[in-house]
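Posting this for the archive.
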Amino acid sequence: MSPSNQPPLNPSADDAKGANGRYRFQAATPAVAIPDSPEQLIAMQEKKPERQEKRAEPTSPKVSQVLEQIETLNTNAYEDQQIALTLVRHLEQFHDNVVEEMQADSEAKHTQIVSWAIDADRLMRCRMLLESVDLD
């Protein structure tokens, strides 16, 4: 046991609350209180700010032209599927190429390679799901 005039070796949680400078990391008071009832929880959730979505890029003239052309064509479901597959394959191949280039670049950041590879994988799964849609 430590003498009574020295601080304890294992202070309790109550002792840690005092800002006496002994601890390197101090727990901050939570910004949001813990609800006491389901009603309070619901009220807190309703006040929750909405998640920021990626900002929409303006549509380029090329994209507008292609979309207008697609709208005017009288295509069936199979043809629509082929168009969608072609676009997804194109985007997937672009991501695969970027990953390969970044892997060859010794100065490329690992986190960027991972991000591009994850997106390439997502596109591959989208393509596989789209290919699996049975239109018969």
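Residues 10-21, 23-28 have pLDDT under 50 and may be disordered. Helices lie at 13-17, 38-47, 61-72, 77-104, 110-132.
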